[in-house]
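Hi C.,

You asked whether I'd gotten around to modeling the 69-residue construct. I have! Everything is below, sequence then structure, no commentary in between.
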Amino acid sequence: MAVLDTAWILISGLPDIARSELVIRQMSRLLGKVVVVDELSLRKEEEVRVKVKCLDSSKLRTSVRVFFN
């Protein structure tokens, strides 16, 4: 039986149109099961923090580019 790691990820460079909890949750599902989106960081103009559960958190050190039309 696999045990999921818990990790905080940082999402940066978000346009204003993407700064909603729904959009962040949908994007973060690529990396694992979303536990919580840090609402305080969502309101600031910096990185957004998201807590996810995944198989191996050491493999999350990557960049993902998402394009919004």
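If it helps when you're writing up: The longest strand covers residues 5-11.

Thanks,
B.
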